[in-house]
Design goal:
Elements (H helix, E strand, L loop, with lengths): L1 E5 L2 E5 L9 E2 L14 E2 L5 H4 L2 H14 L10 E4 L3 H14 L7 E5 L9 E3 L16 E5 L6 E2 L2 E13 L4 E5 L3 E4 L15 H4 L3 H4 L16 E3 H10 L4 H30 L8 E2 L1 E9 L5 E7 L7 E7 L2 E6 L1 H18 L13 H20 L10 E5 L3 H4 L4 H11 L11 H10 L9 H16 L3 H4 L5 H15 L5 H31 L2 E2 L4 E4 L4 E4 L6
Parallel strand pairs: 3-4, 4-14
Antiparallel strand pairs: 1-2, 1-3, 5-8, 6-7, 6-8, 9-10, 10-11, 10-12, 10-15, 11-19, 12-13, 15-16, 17-18, 20-21, 21-22
Helix pairs in contact: 7-11, 11-15, 11-16, 12-13, 13-15, 15-16
């Protein structure tokens, strides 16, 4: 569907449009149509980044750098490549604590709507599920002590708008959905391990249960508003302000973990300086509350359902779409505020686009409108549901953006436009230009490091190794180099020092190269005093003397 703004209206083009539009609203991915302008509601690479394996890698990477902050994601292992590590670590933990009796949950990498998810008590049970090399996934420690409402397990679906990558702009919905299981919860045992309506909160699974309750109210039934649950918790003496702060922190830190890889995909589709659309996207965060009210991130959905209806068989063979009041309440507000925030009319004019009093007046009006919207006082539209998370709370999160800086170096040395993998030549250039090579780390050592990391990630086949080094592997290399160079410091401090060193040397190399190019590009013609300016590649006539 395409959307176009006019001064007082929003027009839809559900079957396409030849002329450019302001907003393109895609159903699944960024690649549905070739778009050269406007705004599109999908980021390139978002679906790939939010698959189970890449998400687990990103969260693990951040937890290694910031273990105290990133403790809200379950311990995870990648299948099949880390299966033996999984077995060894579980056996070691059992030996250290014989009373520990864990349950694990296995999730296919590209699964959705609860499909392919199952629980196990013994790690060896994974081998009974078929060929993992055909369908890779992750295995996680199952969170067996959730917070319950009326004896039922539930999760929280929160909607988050990623409005921009650079600069980073993030908004979070004030309200969300609580999706309930349809059987009272019991901790996992051999007898109830396969009872999905008890353990899995996925709406698409539980709606198939005969116990699922559709309701005309937002505070009853098998799907309720998050605000109604918060009210119930408050009435029982629970401090929900602290809980909301913890959830906001979880969302902010998760976005920080996702953005670096998204930037890699973004530059491959829309290289800097090339025409292309700007992107935004609504994400669905699925959060589980533990018994102690600690929020746990279960997954992030790149394409959360925005349906406000459900199917109901009203007579044999006859199915009707029935409106869901709670879905309509939450989802229409999210979409409405998203369109409001990406409305091209809300962009501030710069002094080059409007001069003097006009520019000042435009910005004053826009600031007043934004303040009204933020305060929820405007009478023209309902109160806003999306509140700014970033950059409003940038000070709280900016120190976590180390991998963002690593991604900038990674993109700098990719070389071939349109790729997301760093080749051996690019890695050598990074090591050389960063001046990391030294007496105890030669260029030959850099080649060996590249081979070792890519082999560990892709296996031993030459075809896979030639695929190159992705961002996560590059971060692993950076961590190795940082630990080698700076000892007796926390890992994030070691990495920060190495990034500072690399950025300084790369900037010096760029400046040196720019100065050299400028000297080579300068052409002097004494006869008519014509000069070629390298900054603009323009011929400038100086034959008329300046005064």
């Amino acid at each position: 569907m395409y959307l176009i703004f006019r001064p007082s209206a929003l027009f839809q083009f559900p079957f396409g449009r030849r002329m450019p539009c302001d907003i393109y609203w895609h159903g699944v991915s960024f690649h549905e149509n070739a778009i050269c302008s406007g705004q599109v509601n999908k980021f390139p690479g978002m679906t790939e980044v939010l698959r189970k394996i890449p998400l687990s890698r990103a969260m693990r990477m951040m937890k290694e750098l910031f273990p105290d902050e990133y403790n809200f994601y379950p311990r995870s292992w990648i299948l099949p490549e880390e299966f033996h590590i999984f077995l060894a670590e579980v056996n070691m933990m059992k030996e250290a604590n014989p009373r520990w009796k864990p349950i694990f949950i296995v999730k296919p990498d590209g699964g959705c709507q609860g499909e392919g998810i199952y629980l196990i008590k013994d790690p060896s049970d994974i081998q009974l599920t078929g060929n993992l090399s055909i369908r890779p996934g992750v295995v996680q420690e199952y969170m067996s002590k959730p917070f319950l409402i009326d004896s039922f397990k539930f999760d929280i679906r929160l909607y988050v708008l990623l409005k921009s990558l650079d600069p980073l702009e993030v908004y979070i919905a004030k309200d969300g959905l609580c999706r309930f299981c349809t059987e009272p919860y019991q901790e996992p045992t051999h007898k109830n391990l396969h009872q999905v309506f008890m353990h899995l909160t996925n709406y698409s699974l539980n709606i198939q249960s005969g116990n699922f309750v559709h309701s005309d109210s937002a505070d009853t039934g098998s799907k309720q508003s998050f605000s109604s649950i918060l009210n119930r918790m408050s009435s029982n003496g629970i401090n929900t302000d602290d809980l909301i702060d913890d959830i906001i922190s979880l969302v902010g830190m998760t976005v920080i973990a996702l953005v670096p890889n998204l930037k890699v995909y973004y530059q491959s589709e829309i290289p800097a300086g090339k025409p292309g659309p700007s992107c935004f996207q609504i994400l669905g965060f699925d959060i589980l509350l533990m018994k102690n009210l600690k929020p746990i991130l279960m997954e992030v959905n790149a394409n959360p359902s925005m349906k406000i209806e459900y199917e109901k068989e009203v007579s044999p063979g006859v199915v009707e779409n029935i409106r869901s009041p709670v879905d309509e309440l939450i989802k229409t507000s999210v979409i409405r505020d998203t369109l409001r925030l990406v409305d091209p009319r809300r962009k501030k004019k710069t002094p080059t686009e409007a001069s003097g009093a006009e520019w000042e007046r435009e910005n004053e009006l826009l600031e007043a409108e934004n303040q009204e919207l933020d305060d929820g006082k405007t009478s023209e539209v309902p109160n806003i549901c999306l509140r700014e998370l970033y950059p409003k709370h940038a000070q709280k999160f900016d120190y976590l953006r180390l991998v963002d800086r690593i991604a900038a170096l990674f993109i700098r040395f990719l070389g071939v436009k349109g790729t997301t993998k760093l080749g051996p030549t690019g890695f050598r250039m990074f090591v050389r230009n960063s001046n990391i090579n030294s007496s105890d780390f030669s260029m030959a050592s850099a080649d060996i490091l590249y081979i070792d990391i890519t082999r560990k990630r892709h296996g031993f086949s030459s075809e896979q190794r030639d695929a190159g080094m992705d961002l996560h592997a590059f971060v692993e290399a950076i961590c190795f180099l940082a630990q080698k160079r700076y000892k007796s410091l926390p890992l994030h401090k070691q990495v920060e020092l190495l990034i500072d060193f690399a950025e300084c040397n790369v900037a010096a190399q760029d400046q040196k190269r720019a100065s050299s190019d400028q000297r080579m590009a300068l052409v002097t013609c004494p006869q008519n005093r014509l000069h070629l300016r390298p900054a603009t590649d323009m011929l400038v006539d100086y034959r008329s003397p300046r005064r």
